Batch of 2 targets.
Target 1
Amino acid sequence: DTAVSQTPKYLVTQMGNDKSIKCEQNLGHDTMYWYKQDSKKFLKIMFSYNNKELIINETVPNRFSPKSPDKAHLNLHINSLELGDSAVYFCASSQSGDSPYEQYFGPGTRLTVT
Amino acid sequence: GQNIDQPTEMTATEGAIVQINCTYQTSGFNGLFWYQQHAGEAPTFLSYNVLDGLEEKGRFSSFLSRSKGYSYLLLKELQMKDSASYLCASQTGANNLFFGTGTRLTVIP
């Protein structure tokens, strides 16, 4: 009964490769997010999807492409991986509306590019 | 623009009280969140404030002053398991969270 799950947990790959990270939530939320946490532990929003529509794209390189087949899933595909992409990527989900809603985070995917 | 400042590291003794401060400059501010993150784990929600004042949840309390752009997280009766990073985050617009770099708290016996 995991609320937000991600696969894989660890990903080691070489520069130039293409990889995907999958995320699923079973909380019935209609908004999902991708965050990147770098080596300095700074957690930064990358994308947000509300009911399968992109609502945030925080100047992320277009090598990163989120895909949401339905509101319970938000996958992240990364093309032509670079050394600087090494980080922990967190998926999160929340309700949406006028009030602030807490976000629930997945366990993270540690990506290492060599 | 968005900016959040919080101390990088703090140390406190088991059983004591510690206050972690956060100042923010945020356009379109909706509310202030606090998350806890243990090493190697995901952030987990602790509390949020929308209006000025103190919100208490067990051993944890959070305070907000919107006019001063200031918040703090108060942890009482510290336990060893409270050693973690504490992330202050301002919310703007459509549930967009802007996080600070976090305060790493070490609880010592």
Target 2
Amino acid sequence: ETGVTQSPTHLIKTRGQQVTLRCSSQSGHNTVSWYQQALGQGPQFIFQYYREEENGRGNFPPRFSGLQFPNYSSELNVNALELDDSALYLCASSLGRNGELFFGEGSRLTVL
Amino acid sequence: AQSVTQLGSHVSVSEGALVLLRCNYSSSVPPYLFWYVQYPNQGLQLLLKYTTGATLVKGINGFEAEFKKSETSFHLTKPSAHMSDAAEYFCAVMRGGDSSYKLIFGSGTRLLVRP
């Protein structure tokens, strides 16, 4: 059984640029959630996708957007990057909207 | 609104000693409560969870936690610390009956285990 995989693992961008992070969900899982973990803090919920539709969103501006594909993989897009966007971005998949979350190892984004 | 408070950003214990990591929550309705562990450069792994039923919950790696409604607490314990327990631990809450599995995390406690 393949777990949750994320890419890239590390990346560096400059302010104003755009970034796309990718997540492959665990086999059989149809729901993907994204979390932002700033240094020294707990993860914060960005949004969740269930069967290709957004199902809940945290307190993040519209420049944070996402997609879920028919194979249930997902992308997180962030436009107009700001320094405060530097963080570890975690993807978690689950079977159903209320299923147990299984986390990937994250993508660490540094914005200079 | 729900929130989670973890007392102590760092906890240091000797190998073999009791581990106690504190978590208090605020929730207007009965919560679902979780403990996750994060090892360096890794994602989060579920240690244990409380949803309903028995208030003493046993998890992986010898950890357990007790839900105390009167104290709004969900402290994590392990009788004897092992060097491999050194990691960051996060307490989280999700309101029961929510339509999506959105977790609200505390700020974490880093456990250091001294030889």
